[in-house]
């Protein structure tokens, strides 16, 4: 065993950026608490991560439900586990014009992308404050920096995560707990499929999608350095810079042209 006492808690750890972040933590000797809904996927990843010589605890929780978020931390406390690192990766979107999309699905997405994240983070902070240290990595997005026609609720949730992360980082600056936001752009994960977004122009050339391992490395290094945020990828840095220099209405127009369906005039 590389470690008997260092734990990292990772949501969305069975695929995409979350999986790659969990792998980096395992390689650095952190025991893992991995969270997802699917038991079978968790069991597969448990065996894979154990090959790094660490302890792996699987938590099958539905983070769309606040009760499951609270019970997750209660289960950890019962077992005397206090993670030093929290990675809030789990998140989803839904594609389409707001007037046409399913409100129930959008409420679920808000619960997952915002409510579960703030509950888990508050429980983590309350646990780690008395211990004098900890690291939080929140999955934000370049979507946090501009309005998002055709993907408006997702963009709104990430705008919240970005602003809130910066706010609590300032509050915690003398506590030993750091808060880092990772801002990826379009990345080659199952996100777009789950969002029913495969007809979007943004996916016209999938070769342009970022590698989730590269995105995870950018986020991991920034978290370990205690940085406030990192925008992953040069093109995404340029996108954010342009969004910062233009009006919201122009940014919304540009994003609409990028995200609308391929067959939309």
From TrEMBL:
Alphabetic keyword roster: Oxidoreductase
Keyword Lyase: no
SUPFAM superfamilies the UniProt entry points to: NAD(P)-binding Rossmann-fold domains
InterPro entries assigned to the protein according to its UniProt record, in alphabetical order: NAD(P)-bd_dom_sf, SDR_fam
UniProt cross-references to Pfam families, sorted A to Z: adh_short
Signal peptide from the UniProt entry: none
Superkingdom of the source species: Bacteria
Keyword tRNA processing: no
Family from the record: Belongs to the short-chain dehydrogenases/reductases (SDR) family.
Listed name of the protein: SDR family oxidoreductase
Organism: Epilithonimonas pallida
């Amino acid at each position: 065993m590389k470690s008997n006492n260092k734990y990292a808690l990772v949501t969305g750890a069975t695929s995409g950026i979350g999986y790659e972040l969990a792998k980096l933590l395992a390689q650095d000797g952190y025991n893992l608490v991995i969270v997802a809904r699917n038991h079978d996927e968790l069991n597969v990843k448990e065996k894979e991560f154990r090959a790094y010589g660490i302890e792996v605890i699987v938590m099958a929780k539905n983070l769309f439900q606040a009760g499951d978020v609270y019970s997750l931390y209660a289960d950890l406390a019962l077992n005397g586990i206090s993670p030093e690192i929290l990675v809030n990766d789990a998140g989803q979107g839904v594609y389409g014009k707001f007037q046409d999309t399913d409100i129930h699905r959008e409420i679920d997405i808000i619960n997952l992308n915002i409510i579960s994240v703030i509950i888990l983070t508050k429980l983590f902070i309350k646990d780690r404050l008395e211990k004098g240290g900890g690291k939080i990595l929140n999955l934000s997005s370049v979507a946090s920096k501009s309005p998002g026609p055709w993907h408006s609720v997702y963009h709104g949730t990430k705008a919240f995560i970005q602003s809130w992360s910066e706010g609590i980082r300032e509050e915690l600056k003398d506590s030993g707990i750091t808060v880092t936001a990772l801002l990826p752009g379009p990345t080659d994960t199952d996100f777009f499929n789950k969002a029913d977004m495969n007809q979007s122009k943004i996916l016209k050339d999938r070769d342009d999608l970022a590698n989730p391992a590269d995105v995870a490395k950018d986020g991991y290094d920034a978290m370990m350095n205690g940085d406030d945020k990192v925008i992953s990828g040069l093109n995404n840095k340029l996108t954010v810079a342009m969004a910062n220099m233009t009006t919201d209405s122009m940014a919304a127009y540009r994003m609409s042209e990028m995200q609308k369906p391929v067959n939309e005039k």
